[in-house]
Amino acid sequence: MRKLLNKLLVKFGLLITKAPTLLSDKSLAVSDAFPTELTEKLTVTEATGTPENELFDIFAADTNVHKWHHYFDIYARHFGAYRNRPIKMLEIGVFRGGSLRMWKDYFHPDSTIVGIDVDKSCKDHEIADRNVFVRIGSQADPDFLAQVNEEFGPFDIILDDGSHKTHHQNISFGALFRPALKDGGCYMVEDVHTNYWIKHIDSEDTFIDLSKQMVDMLHEPYFNRKETHFRHEHPESVKQLELSYLSANLGGIAFYDSIVVFDKKQRNLPKSELR
Predict the structure, then answer these.
(1) Where are the beta strands (DSSP E) in the chain?
(2) Which of 258, 21, 22, 228 is nearest to 161 (CA)?
(3) Dihedral of the CA atoms 166, 168, 173, 175 (nearest 10)?
(4) Which of 90, 127, 173, 183 has the fewest CB atoms within 10 Å distance of its CB?
(5) Which residue of the set 69, 108, 125, 164 is catalytic?
(6) pLDDT averaged over the chain?
(7) Which CATH superfamily is domain 69-193+206-275 in?
(8) Catalytic: 200?
(9) Which residues, including other chains, have CB under 8 Å from residue 236's CB and lie 6 or more apart?
């Protein structure tokens, strides 16, 4: 009964869950396995200067874009490999339209950039003759997301820069990762620091919680097994396993300050070799 009530509250954006420990007591609980040298408090100062990469230069030349400076090196690291060919990118959250122009100028000129937003005025930021499109709808509506995928997808890159509400991040990932992201594609969720701000937490599990679970799912092939089950030509080696979709199609996860990146890649069973 409680879970059903929570689902109804989440649907209408009314659920307020208990805050993570970090929010409740304003301190970070750490394992005793950490040596004190790694948990000692140090003073961190403000950043000086600006990122030195091409994407930041594009950002700095435009207006109506809001981005954290430390994101640009992360973008360059994960998006740089997609620049040598036309791609399809879906950005959740249009705001004032500046980021759509930024991505269009950064990627191959024949790329298609699609933005979605609940604000109907965001449609004004569409530049159809440059393959920049805007569709109006909620990132928490799987039917709407399926329509966008049917019209434009599947996508090489999906970037969630939407409401930053935890249940929205969860629903979008669940609705898009399998059908709307190409094999070899990249799904990035930014501003996940909001998962530690009580006004954005409206689900039992935050997106950070789900991401931590996906670290375990990434290692699902090894559950209750041993190294010889994967050793090349060993009598105990297994030829196939039944795995979750995520485990079978998740190439890697990268965690950064405020950003989590998922690389989609159809996997084979891991193999070891003793020579």
Answers:
(1) 88-92, 112-117, 132-136, 155-160, 181-190, 250-256, 259-264
(2) 258
(3) 150
(4) 183
(5) 164
(6) 91
(7) Vaccinia Virus protein VP39 (3.40.50.150)
(8) no
(9) 226, 228, 229
More confident of the two residues 24 and 180: 180
Q: Where do runs of H (alpha helix) occur along 40-197?
A: 54-60, 71-79, 98-106, 142-152, 166-180
pLDDT over 90 (residue 97): no
Alpha-carbon span 230 to 226, nearest angstrom: 8
Q: pLDDT tens digits, residue range 110-137?
A: 999 999 999 999 999 999 999 999 999 9
Q: 155-173 pLDDT, tens per residue? A: 999 999 999 999 999 999 9
Here the tokens at position 3 are 């879970």
For residue 71 the two structure tokens come to: 């994101």
Find out whether 154 and 185 touch, Cβ atoms under 8 Å.
Answer: yes
167 touches 140 (CB < 8 A): yes
pLDDT for residue 8: 54
**pTM of this structure:** 0.89
